Amino acid sequence: MSDDAELLRWRMHAQFGGRPAGVAEAARRCAGVQAQDAGAVRLALRARGVAGPGEVAAAYEAGEVVATWLMRGTLHLVPAGDAAGLVALFRERRLAAGARRRRELGLTEELCARALAVAPALLDPPPSRAALVARLREHGVPVEPAGQAPAHLMAFLAAHGVLCRGADVAPREPGHRPVPPGREVTAGDLARGYLRAFGPAGPADLAAWAGLAPVDARRAFEAAGAVETAPGLAVLPGAAPPPSGPPLVRLLGPYDTYLLGYRSRDVMLDPARTKLVNAGGGVVRPVLVADGRVLGTWRRAGGELLVEAFGPLPAAVRAGLAEEAAAVGEFRSEALPLRVAEV
């Protein structure tokens, strides 16, 4: 790995260089899509080859993908066949992390055990959170419907593999359904998926992305057979550098997993511009990325697609941006003229 530009181009092509893909394949390629926000999920999948937003809803409905609490305890969209194995891989860490808060919310061991016993029979048809809480209360689980207790009980049930998130049944809330059966997922499998999507990277990056202890991340890299390419950086065996060509340009939505996949963003994002992207409160704004480097933010403004660039954009990046802006407009079924302003 000769320099930062080569590193970033390699990472960019790992995330975004594939051919058009279906929803499940796109989610697999990036090792899971950050999924707290439905609009952000659609934009993340578009940037990775999904042709239209209707495909996302169809994939949910068909059971090809599900969302559940996985890496860092955060909601992620993954292929259905990977969900059960990933849930099992993260189970003990997630249950331990939430134990104190469950006690504070009155989710006693007895209440949680009762919920585990009766919830599997209450998921057909897939209920919203409020509907599932009502069903649980009817079956002797006295969870308080107001406040944070329902959310933490859902996370507890999800960690045990009882339920995950599925097709939309209420505004902004997918229904809860049983976790589909699937393959076992080992720590080595997790590291291989991570390196396919984010490599070259190091164990510290995996630890930050997945929420693992550093020692567990190092062991996962060893199990994956990771090959060191530079100090602190590794790829999978047989991984090849990206092809030469024009810059690969993407307009990424909010909370895109590319920005959340490493211990530090300093290589991809000028630290002086960090607050323009991550202003606090966990908000990560939509960004313009070219060959792995964050060059600005973007938003819909007054009938335009406004890109606020961090400086002059090279001609080759502008050409790629014009194509990318048109692709975003087509995906969202709105023809927005592109305007670039420097900030």
Compose a concise summary of this entry.
By secondary structure, the protein is an alpha+beta fold. It has 3 domains: 18-177, no CATH class; 187-235; 249-342, no CATH class. The protein is 43% helix and 17% strand.
Give the count of helical stretches. Answer: 13
Total E-strand runs:
12
Query: Which blocks of ≥5 consecutive residues have pLDDT under 50?
Result: none
Radius of gyration (Å): 21 Å
**Shape call:** globular
Measured as a percent range, the helix fraction is 40-55%
Total domains:
3
Beta-strand percentage? 15-25%
Physical arrangement of strands within the biggest beta sheet: 8-9-10-11-12
Largest sheet, if any? 5 strands, mixed
- Element order: H for helix, E for strand: HHEHHEEHHHHEEHHHEEEHEEEHE
Mean pLDDT: 93
Q: Pairing-aware structural class of the strands and helices?
A: alpha+beta
In whole angstroms, the N-to-C terminal distance is 32 Å
Task: Describe the protein's architecture and organization.
- There is one protein chain.
- With 343 residues, the chain is an alpha+beta fold.
- The protein folds into three domains: 18-177, no CATH class; 187-235; 249-342, no CATH class.
- The chain has 13 helices and twelve strands.
- The strands form four sheets. The chain has a five-stranded mixed beta sheet.
- Helix 5 (80-104) crosses helix 8 (149-159) and helix 9 packs across helix 11.
- It starts with a helix and ends with a strand.
Keywords, separated by commas or semicolons:
single chain, 343 residues, alpha+beta, 3 domains, three-stranded antiparallel sheet, 13 helices, 12 strands
